From TrEMBL:
<dbReference type="InterPro" id="IPR051094">
    <property type="entry name" value="Diverse_Catalytic_Enzymes"/>
</dbReference>
<dbReference type="GO" id="GO:0008803">
    <property type="term" value="F:bis(5'-nucleosyl)-tetraphosphatase (symmetrical) activity"/>
</dbReference>
<keyword id="KW-0479">Metal-binding</keyword>
<protein>
    <recommendedName>
        <fullName>bis(5'-nucleosyl)-tetraphosphatase (symmetrical)</fullName>
        <ecNumber>3.6.1.41</ecNumber>
    </recommendedName>
</protein>
<dbReference type="Pfam" id="PF01966">
    <property type="entry name" value="HD"/>
</dbReference>
<dbReference type="InterPro" id="IPR003607">
    <property type="entry name" value="HD/PDEase_dom"/>
</dbReference>
<keyword id="KW-0547">Nucleotide-binding</keyword>
<dbReference type="InterPro" id="IPR005249">
    <property type="entry name" value="YqeK"/>
</dbReference>
<feature type="domain" description="HD">
    <location>
        <begin position="17"/>
        <end position="132"/>
    </location>
</feature>
<keyword id="KW-0408">Iron</keyword>
<dbReference type="InterPro" id="IPR006674">
    <property type="entry name" value="HD_domain"/>
</dbReference>
<dbReference type="GO" id="GO:0046872">
    <property type="term" value="F:metal ion binding"/>
</dbReference>
<keyword id="KW-0378">Hydrolase</keyword>
<dbReference type="GO" id="GO:0000166">
    <property type="term" value="F:nucleotide binding"/>
</dbReference>
Length: 191
């Protein structure tokens, strides 16, 4: 199954993206073991999180419209954001994944989701922090937090991504802000 997915990825994403995906798979597994979450599920979700990353926008839109009654305006103007939802569709329809936890973690990997599961948190964090993302002091610090506190790590990952979007004059999908606020409250609730 794993090799079948990798062979499919070789045909459907760039070599650079494949290396990122394998980095996410590995970091998901390690984070899951550390935080006592099912590592097999985490690795699987990591391996499949970007299946639709290179699908052209019209294909992403067409597939998402088949699955969902409504597509929000931010996704309509930036269909690339739909690659998370469409990757979950490919995992289900091409690779027969029925585990809803895995499918949801794939859907949540770009914007997160308020109330998301710990499995989703892990894929969300690993996508941003796997080793191929670089080794700036900021990323290294964030990696350290990912071992110490899952929700703090989600908050930081959201803020890192939001800062990037602001700096590059990009439209912000509001769900990323809701995810950040949710993570913040989860941290406060723990104390
Ligand atoms: N909250 C958001 N609002 C709008 N665009 C976003 C948001 N988060 C991420 N993006 C954009 O969506 C694209 C995919 O994000 P992501 O899955 O994290 O991609 P990558 O793995 O290429 O970094 C990126 O171009 C990113 O800038």
């Amino acid at each position: 199954m794993r090799q079948e997915i990798i062979d499919w990825l070789k045909e459907n994403v760039s070599e650079h993206r494949l290396q990122h995906i394998l980095g996410v798979e590995k970091m998901c597994e390690q984070l899951a073991i550390h935080h006592k979450i099912d590592p097999k599920k985490a690795a699987k979700a990591g391996l499949m999180h970007d299946l639709a990353k290179f699908f052209p926008p019209p294909k992403l839109l067409a597939m998402a419209k088949k699955e969902y009654n409504e597509i929000d305006t931010v996704c309509l103007s930036n269909p690339h954001l739909l690659h998370a939802d469409v990757s979950a569709m490919v995992a289900r329809d091409t690779f027969g994944v029925t585990d809803e936890d895995i499918l949801q973690a794939i859907r949540d990997h770009t914007l997160g989701n308020p109330e998301m599961s710990d499995l989703s948190c892990i894929v969300f964090i690993a996508d941003a922090l796997e080793p191929n993302r670089g080794n700036t002091p900021e990323l290294e610090k964030m990696r350290q937090i990912s071992w110490e506190n899952l929700y703090k790590s989600v908050q930081q990952t959201c803020e890192y991504s939001l800062q990037y979007l602001i700096k590059h004059n990009k439209t912000i999908h509001p769900r990323a802000i809701l995810t950040r606020n949710w993570a913040l409250h989860k941290i406060r609730a723990k104390h």
